Amino acid sequence: MDITVNILLTIATAATPLLIAAIGELVVERSGVLNLGVEGMMIMGAVGGFGASYLTGSPWIGLLAAIAMGAVFSLLFAVMTLSLATNQVATGLSLTLLGLGLSGMMGTSFVGQPGERLPNIDIPGLTSIPVIGRLLFGQDPIFYISIALTAAVMWFLFKTRTGLTLRSIGDSHTSAHALGIKVIRYRYLAVIFGGACAGLAGGHLSLVYTPQWVENMSAGRGWIALALVVFASWRPWRVLAGAYIFGAVWIGQLHAQAFGIPVPSQFLSSLPYLATVVVLVLISRNKRLTMMNTPASLGQPFVPDR
């Protein structure tokens, strides 16, 4: 039973950064913007969070720094794609490469240094409940933030007037502009929110998952988060389910190697990415499901009439 609980705990820990980054990207894409720079924003959040916590001795300050780093990096993306109308795909890829290189340079002095880990929440009387106590009441704070964030985004997109406006921009920015909606303003806010989520996801990696700085420690999680949005058909609750499925695959390959299963370790390490490719292929075969929820203006530049 202890082994099962420990495996479930590690799955939740592995799924949390995927969920946060994917939820942020979902909001961005619902506004009609395609941000392929999630990986770069996540790794910048990781180095920013670790650096701030190491220098101040406070993981909470590190958490705020991770969010700020992701938001600032996303603001650069927003200025280039929304104000200067650059190609969103090329800009996102460029910022990912920039983030990977810049984070490596910034984190040179942090390699091998001990990190400050965010403490798990301990609720007396509840955390000690057999099996479910540690799963539900003894997790790290970012785990609860990820669940609350998913519920909040679901409520915002489908139960509020502002969420409806955001979705209408993603479906037809020209029509929204004709109705007097400030398309660029809404998209700026959505992109910054998505960047802050990516930064928070990166902070989880360096402050909870492995409280240390390792170059390229995001290890492709930003790309998996992008695939999760498509996998979920732009629905928040499906992102939640998908994140935990991918988290289980991620942890499953680690435990398979630990148990000595006679399969090449290189193949086991590739399983999360292989699962991503398989899922995208299966989804692409169902054109009706894909087109039904895809924002019609996704990836299209918008330049308001002057």
UniProtKB/TrEMBL annotation:
<dbReference type="Pfam" id="PF02653">
    <property type="entry name" value="BPD_transp_2"/>
</dbReference>
<feature type="transmembrane region" description="Helical">
    <location>
        <begin position="6"/>
        <end position="28"/>
    </location>
</feature>
<feature type="transmembrane region" description="Helical">
    <location>
        <begin position="33"/>
        <end position="54"/>
    </location>
</feature>
<dbReference type="GO" id="GO:0022857">
    <property type="term" value="F:transmembrane transporter activity"/>
</dbReference>
<keyword id="KW-1003">Cell membrane</keyword>
<dbReference type="GO" id="GO:0005886">
    <property type="term" value="C:plasma membrane"/>
</dbReference>
<feature type="transmembrane region" description="Helical">
    <location>
        <begin position="89"/>
        <end position="111"/>
    </location>
</feature>
<feature type="transmembrane region" description="Helical">
    <location>
        <begin position="216"/>
        <end position="234"/>
    </location>
</feature>
<feature type="transmembrane region" description="Helical">
    <location>
        <begin position="188"/>
        <end position="210"/>
    </location>
</feature>
<feature type="transmembrane region" description="Helical">
    <location>
        <begin position="267"/>
        <end position="283"/>
    </location>
</feature>
<feature type="transmembrane region" description="Helical">
    <location>
        <begin position="241"/>
        <end position="261"/>
    </location>
</feature>
<dbReference type="InterPro" id="IPR001851">
    <property type="entry name" value="ABC_transp_permease"/>
</dbReference>
<feature type="transmembrane region" description="Helical">
    <location>
        <begin position="60"/>
        <end position="82"/>
    </location>
</feature>
<keyword id="KW-0472">Membrane</keyword>
<keyword id="KW-1133">Transmembrane helix</keyword>
<protein>
    <submittedName>
        <fullName>Nucleoside ABC transporter membrane protein</fullName>
    </submittedName>
</protein>
<keyword id="KW-0812">Transmembrane</keyword>
<feature type="transmembrane region" description="Helical">
    <location>
        <begin position="141"/>
        <end position="158"/>
    </location>
</feature>
